[in-house]
Amino acid sequence: MHCRSTVSAALFALFATTLLLFSSRLPATAATALPLRPHNTYSIVARDSITGEFGVAVQSHWFSVGNSVPWARAGVGAVATQSFVEVTYGPLGLDLMGAGKSAPEALAALLAADAHADVRQVAMVDSRGRVAVHTGEHCIAEAGHHTGVGYSVQANLMENPTVWGAMARAYETAHGDFAERLLRVLEAAQNEGGDIRGRQSAAILIVAGKSTGRPWADTVLNLRVEDSPNPVKDLRRLVRVHRAYKWMDTGDERMADKDIKGAVAAYGRAAKMLPDNPEVKFWAAHTMMLAGSQAEAMRYFREVFRADPKWKEVVRRLPAAGLLPDEAMADKILREAR
Questions:
Q1: Could you give the residue range(s) of every CATH 3.60.20.10 domain in the chain?
Q2: Contact call for residues 102 and 128 (beta carbons, < 8 A)
Q3: 3-state SS class at 227
Q4: Quick one: 203 exposed, middle or buried, by C-beta within 10 A (0-12, 13-18, 19+)?
Q5: Cβ neighbours for 191, distance < 8 A, ≥ 6 positions apart
Q6: What digits encode the pLDDT tens for the residues 66-90?
Q7: How far apart are CA 211 and CA 73, in angstroms?
Q8: What angle do CA 279, 281, 282 make, to 5 degrees?
């Protein structure tokens, strides 16, 4: 009993301190004036029931939406703060959930401390997949949200009130990995009309379900399109590039395990995803060469040199950087991979 009381007291102290911090971080005019410059947008926060990962995906007709709306922390949860944005809902919401508060408890506490909760739109999901969402009564129409198991979708200043329903259906019926399902939600929103003003930026953030204590290692995906006439399309392209480089990493791992066949297959998948990017094949060839799979390496080097002869000069510079054992190997590559 004494131990529980001590823990509860500590959590209450953190809870109270967080609320004070939130109040102090609000704009100086928060008590008397309406916040300006709304980040009107649509987004999803979710916890993947398979991997435990947390994710946020968002699109807006606003520059660099990824700089303010999406927040996530491995082992804790995710937050989207939008409409007339109060950015501190993100880090403080994560602090509260990290201290043991549920998503509904964390959101309720922050709303209670906000003089302008009526213009906020905020959604949270916690480590147990519990969701909470708030759409203030003065968010610009059309505005609304929909929650489901482990996720919440929300939107404001939409062309029509069917957007968030389309987003929910897309998430619940989409196939593929977590990133793919989040992308499908953004595409569904856009296909339903999306932001009445158009589109400008988009972002996707995914973190691990459990924390390693190293935030840089816990980030699964963090991609942004800051300014584009078609940000969701560009975001999908960036996700494809990310996947290709992950296959490159898999190829390196297979090579380290002496699994030449597995490595070639992984590098091949990466190259197929990015057929116009010679760098993918170049470093695949480099790794194969060092591992002794010279025939496959030379085939890749030839394709790279045909695409861009400047890569030959890169080969010449590798021995001095310690990336080839000697100049003889560089000469061999340049001689045989013509």
A1: 2-27+36-229
A2: yes
A3: coil
A4: buried
A5: 166
A6: 999 999 999 999 999 999 999 999 9
A7: 8
A8: 60
The residue assigned the tokens 């045989």 is: 336
- CB of 59 closer than 8 Å to CB of 190: yes
Asked whether 332 and 324 are in contact (CB, 8 A), the reply is: no
CATH superfamily of the domain spanning 2-27+36-229: Aminohydrolase, N-terminal nucleophile (Ntn) domain (3.60.20.10)
Q: What is the rounded CA–CA span in Å between residue 195 and residue 253?
A: 43
CB 124 within 8 A of CB 132: yes
Amino acid at 80: A
For residues 122-128, average pLDDT: 98
Which helix (H) or strand (E) is 155 found in, with range? strand 151-155
Instruction: Please tell me whether residue 310 adopts helix, strand or coil conformation.
Output: helix
Give, in order, the Cα–Cα distances in Å from 307 to each of 90, 286, 333.
45, 16, 16
**Overall fold of domain 243-336:** 1.25.40
pLDDT band at 6 (very low <50, low <70, confident <90, very high): very low
How many Cβ atoms sit within 10 Å of the Cβ of residue 13? 11
SS3 138: coil
Residue-wise pLDDT for 174-213, tens only, equals 999 999 999 999 999 999 999 999 999 999 999 999 999 9
